[in-house]
Amino acid sequence: MSNLRLEELSARTIVAANSLTLRRGQEQFIVPISYSIADAYVDPSTTWARVIVDADQDDKVVGFVRGNFDPNHPKDEFKACVWRVNVDADEQGKGIGTFAVRALLAEARQRGFDRITAIWEYGDLGPGAFFTRCGFTQVGETEYGEAIGELAVA
Ligand SMILES: CC(C)(COP(=O)(O)OP(=O)(O)OC[C@H]1O[C@@H](n2cnc3c(N)ncnc32)[C@H](O)[C@@H]1OP(=O)(O)O)[C@@H](O)C(=O)NCCC(=O)NCCS
């Protein structure tokens, strides 16, 4: 099992996070349209972003997770959400994505939220099965036809 931890963004880790690779066909799922549009209006102070590093691989950056925590956001699905999670192509399938979601869940708990949400696009190569495996239940759809999932902060 990997020896994972979160790190705040720094000059080193930002470059590494931007260099994370995807598996063929995953590009189209990385930023659902709802997030692309909402990004223009999001207050940077509500963004929470971390890289995931693996101490067993000389602190290699193996993933990236970004959340938004804004209790005043007009849309429920953006109040406490997984904005983005991605794991390097070579490191997928080892539990790193799950680690990232749990970390975001812990952050939400600490901030007093009782649930987190995620938005994803449907598709065989998309992250829907991953979010379901993490415990998200689909509760609706966005105006762009994407799934909205919810996970209770236990
Ligand atoms: C989605 C993603 C973050 C998952 O990360 P990961 O580290 O591979 O996920 P995990 O290893 O923690 O997988 C957890 C579970 O989900 C399942 N899972 C993960 N990706 C899956 C997929 N594409 N299809 C089906 N099941 C999947 C795993 O099999 C595992 O199930 P298990 O507990 O029964 O073994 C990763 O595939 C990725 O970076 N995708 C591209 C970017 C993206 O689409 N991000 C989401 C939108 S921002």
Can you give a write-up of this model?
- With about 150 residues, the protein is α+β, with helices and mostly antiparallel strands.
- The chain has one domain: Aminopeptidase.
- It has helices spanning about 10-20, 35-40, 95-110, 130-135; strands at about 5, 45-55, 60-70, 80-85, 115-120, 135-140, 145-150.
- A seven-stranded mixed beta sheet has the order 1-2-3-4-5-7-6, sandwiched between helices.
- The radius of gyration is 15 Å and the shape is globular.
- The model has no long low-confidence stretch (mean pLDDT about 95).
Low-confidence stretches: none
Largest sheet: 7 strands, mixed
Rounded to the nearest angstrom, the radius of gyration is 15 Å
Principal-axis shape: globular
Binned, the helix content reads 10-25%
Second rung of CATH, namely the architecture: 3-Layer(aba) Sandwich
Strand content: 25-35%
Termini separation? 24 Å
How are the SSEs placed, and which strands pair?
Layout: E1 4-7, H1 11-18, H2 33-39, E2 47-54, E3 60-69, E4 80-87, H3 96-110, E5 115-120, H4 128-134, E6 137-141, E7 147-152
Bound molecules: coenzyme A.
